[in-house]
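Supplementary Methods, section 5.1.

A reviewer requested that the exact input to the structure prediction be made available. We therefore reproduce it here, unchanged from the version used in the analyses.
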Amino acid sequence: MFGWTLLLIWAAREPVARKDIALLTAVPVLPGLALSVLYGCLNGYIPLSSSLQIWSSQAFLFALLISGYIRDSRHT
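The structure derived from this sequence is encoded cell-by-cell as follows.
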C-alpha cells in the first residue's frame, strides 16, 4: 500500500501525462479491495454496516478516477 501511495503521489505531479495510473488504480485495485471486503463481510470479520461505508467510498473513488481518465483522454 505504501508503494502504491508513492506511485499515486508521483502521478499527481503530472496528472495528464500519467493518467494511465488512474485507470490502473480504478480497474484492478479498487475491485480487488471491494472483493476483500466482501470476503471479510461474508465470513463475519467485517460488519455489513462497515462494508457498505467502505463500498460507497470505493464507488466514489472509482467514479472519480474513471471520469478524470475519460475527461483527460478527450483533451490529449
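The chain is about 85% helix and 0% strand. These observations are discussed further in the main text.
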